[in-house]
Amino acid sequence: MNFPNKLCLAVAGRSAALKGSIRYLRKYFLLPGLYLVFLPGPVMAEAPGINPALPSWGYWFRSQINRHPDVIAAKERMYAALSIADSLERPLYNPELDSSYEREGRYNNYRLGLSQRLDWWGKRDTRKQQARYSRTAARQAYKLAILRKSAAGLRALIEWDAAGQQSVLALRQEEQLGTLLNLVRSRRKSGDIGQVDVEMAFLGLSQKLNDAARAQARIKQAEARLQEALPGWSSAGLTIPENFWTIDMQKNRPRRVDEYPLVAAARAKWEVMKKRAALARLQARAEPTVRLSAGKSADDTVVGVTLSIPLNVRNNYSAQTRAAQRRMFAAEAGYRAVRRRQQMAIRASAAALNEYRKRYQRWRILMAGRGQRSGNLLEKQWRSGDMSTTEYLLALQQRTEGLVAGIELRTQYQLARIDWLFQSGQMKAALMQLKQ
Asked: Rounded to two decimals, what is the model's pTM?
């Protein structure tokens, strides 16, 4: 029996609590692709699959995002903005009704009047156009909130999965060093090695205990972030399907940068500010008020028509007009800045994804099958005496760092893909393609 198999038996012989932790982590934290690289054959059968009861993982994920309080709050803000837009399309001025009564000698004099301010300059048409752009801005802001929460949820899933993989690796190394310590003690009694080797084994085990503790803490922290991002998720929940990373989004029609929710919202806000500036210019113009009245004075019937026009002499409201124009210029500059920034973000995310993809694929080719072979080789060298215990522990540490580097590289590749889907606005399209 070779050394790794002995270690596996030693793992099985440990306490029930630790065995339960390892089984839990193996079941829920390791992705199928990493099983092929890191773990021996019998463990591969424990790779998790997608729950067949769910019609679509993408549908489940989107439902979790829609249940998030932040998304619900964003939806309510959208509805409030849509209601405000509806109010902008209503007539500006309501009619006014007034009446008067007086007693003059033996006569009862009374009068009834109706006045209406006229929208002489067509402000309502401008407000209707403002309402249309306000609705666009509100809907785009809601889309952006969903997009951001979806990206945050996927990132949380990736980080939780990576933390689980590192925890499995740390626990396995801890068990290996525990078994190694027992073997070192036996060889020390037989005189094959010295006391220094025993001490180094103790030091190595103490380091692995610290690594395992930190790995377990990272799992709990990642799990808390995941439960916050996805309200209905549990520790027995689903991980991201493996085919999510193989969806070819390049075949889709590339989204123009102006279609991105953040850019579209900025453009709509600029248009809203344009209409507000136009309204400010119209507000500076006087509008007439027409008043019709009828009544009785003494024995005579009185009918009157009154036309009043305000005189913008003392205040022509030019300051308000200038302020509205400056806000329009600021909104335009803001839109162009957002658009330019988004273009650079798309370009940068695509370049980062390309680099991580190439390095990760190359790493998988380089490490294919080497994880187990390197462990067997190191164990053989140590047992034959060609390698001291200190050198063996150092080599094991380097091997562990290589495996951890692979986990981190895969994690960074996945995060880069999420960032590219987020920056390019194709997150929803990618989730909709998940049929598993």
From this structure: 0.76
